[in-house]
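Entry:
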Amino acid sequence: MMRLVLHTDNVLRGLAGEARGRIGEGLEGSLSAVEARARLSAPVRTGRLKDSIAAYLTGAEKGVLRAGAPYASFLHEGTGLYGPRGKAYVVTHRRKKALMWKGAAHPVKRVLIRGIRPRDFLRSALAVEVIREGFEEGFMGERHGTKGGS
């Protein structure tokens, strides 16, 4: 008589580990896709903002998308009337009697600045289809031979 005992604990542990790894790869794929979309939709003057966009894992189930340029939040959220506070602001002279700049018709004592409209480049990159496609690509990549340069 022959007796086989199958301990599913080890098998399930192995599957759970593989599933965790696959989910991590899927999350990395999603982050990569979202980062690429954010870089494409970011406004470009010098390229510094676009270069500062990064996405990375912070845990097994968490990732971060950030723009590290010091002015990124102003461009993303807007300023003045268009920003979070919704108020225009006044710029006045500090050292001289008036303000003057290239192209101005005459000196002025103060200027009302309306602000800049928000450019929602990070939040718009979080489109569901981008996340799903990136996740599927990362999750299924190795199995279907698409990962690693093919």
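DSSP finds four helices and four strands in the chain.
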